[in-house]
Amino acid sequence: MIVLGTKPGQHDACFALIRDGEPLFVYEVERFNRVKRATSIDLSVLFEGLAEYSISPADVDLVTNCMDPGELGKRKAQMSEYITPDKVGSIHRFLDWHLPSWYLLLREGGFPVGRIVNIRHHLCHVSGVYYSGPSTDAAILSVDGSGEAETSMLAHGRDGRISILGTTPHPHSLGHLYQGVTIWLGWGYGEEGKTMALAAYGDPQRFRRQLDSFIHVDDDGQFRYLPALRPGPLRYASTEIGRIVLPQLVGPGRQDGEEISQTHRDVAAAVQAICEEIMLKQARFLKRETGSKTLLLAGGVGLNSVTNGILAAESGFDDVIAYPQASDAGTALGGAMYAYHNISAPEQPRRWHMTHAYWGQGIDLENLDAASKTYQVRGSQSGDIAADAAETLAAGHVTGWVQGRSEIGPRALGNRSILANPLVPGIKDKVNGVKHREPWRPFAPSVLREDVSTYFEADCDLPYMTTVARIRDEWRHPLDSIGHIDGTARVQTVTEKSNPLFYRLLQEFKSRTGIGVLLNTSLNGRGEPLVQTCEQALRLYVNSELDAIVIGDRLFTDKTDALVGQSLIPYVWNIRKLPRTRLLVVPGELPASKSELLLDIVQDNPEARVAVSDGTAVAEAISAAGQEWIVSVPALEPGDIASSYDAVAFYVPFPGDKCVFEEEIYYSPLAVLSRRTMEEAGVPVYWIDSRGDVNSMRDSLYVHHDEPPALAIPSAYQRFWTPAERP
Known about the structure:
- The chain is of the alpha/beta class.
- The chain is 35% helix and 17% strand.
- The two termini are 25 Å apart.
């Protein structure tokens, strides 16, 4: 029995394939397109994953969608209660378009509608941790920004079935509040970890009264936005909270580049305290209602490791487990697990639970030699790579470590890591130089499981770096490089069973230094996801202050003659999706700061041409590089394009997924021109978006069409799946 779970669009896109209840892969799209949190509508990763495991799409029994359009009526009814009547109509139209889009993406990809199963968003979250968990009896708490009609779910998993005990309705959302404060602090989506880190430096009481006037929390942890109890103009999305609500409550938000003040620290501390209060009260409610010994955490707020540490210490549960992929990416595996256990094979007993996080794609060692030549570095093959790497680390060298299949979730767990000796004076500053991170943010430790109680006030499995533990007093100074200002650390325990080679590395390091602890942070450039390939790993190595890198059994320590180039920004990586043919690139509103994008396109494809009309800044930047291939195309008509070009690429100043999720863009003049170009000129069209992704518009601009034209242009998915007829 094969079930495919999908998070098919917008942020945290992910695909998970399970066979007979066990995962084959969990592929996060961000690792493939290099766009962090992956606002993607490209399903190619899905089909390539199937092909990699020699599974035909025809072999897939069910495909799950992590949003249920059937909940649309409930969401509309909720909104009508807190939005003034003059605003309701436009929001309802948005919902009519938005919620079904996820399902339509799968249909457009060619999946017969009879195989697509729509599952409630939070039910996917709770299923992901329950059916991956070690216990058949567990309380489950899922909290994030929003699902269809709920923002949190309290549930009880018992004997293979899940009972929903309670939910929090829209618009009342802890995830949106926390994200709103993150926006108020001047950061973007997905940077809530910065808010959590900053909170340790603040006074949680200074602004608590102001925040309490906005959000009320009852004794069982249920909460509500007080202004939303009467109709008003706001939807209470995180952007509105960050840019409208919070400035009214606590003052103007921090601007980009502005120095962090004590006010910023105190507001972060206040919202962190609210998060802890809500989660702790809800956990205690679940303990009373279920009597379970285990609490499982899911949803984006489940990655708040500080709160998780408090739950572990004070909730009354014997075990508190937050899995590594608590974000929306986890709804892919969760949806697949729910469908398998409740739809496709409901009588089959559970026989799998997660013991490690390494479900991503394996490192492409077959390309290591080619990548080494590209960057002009040479590694030495080792007969005992754990021992040689431990020697390098013991000497104080900051070292990349790349092995096997990548870990899922946002945190490096020993297969795509930057490692360092935590005892070396100034090592934190040195690693910050590699990562280009704010100096006040903490790094995390990886520790031998048998040694965890030596250094930390914990003696339990903490394999996913999702829970903090307090550093023992006698080790706070020696291990200050992996501790936070509050004396805690986000611990990863390592066992021989979970990761044999990483475990050996820790053992070898201990034999040389006396401690079985390594500083561990993610192997990626600033703003990028974890590296996916040998080329990406070596590119990061030669362009950063890394002293060494290990890839497989190869140790690289000398980059004296390395070819240093651009960091692996998404643009540079994703332009490879564009065909190496007669390509027309139209800059549109491309900022001058990204003009290197055009250089890379043309240098990689001598057949490419760039259309420059009013883009003066771009034209000057390109001309200054001495290029002779710039042409001016004053008008773009499909008839003119057909004879001169084999493909067209437009730059668009917004994330490309908006063409599916926003009606105005789907029917915009550029979208109409793109369709005409594909239909009349018979050439493919791509949109290069503001986040650096390259989108095949054949697979996007007909999602909402009931009868898309039969184009001769090959779909990106055509070689994997012949699109079925529409119902």
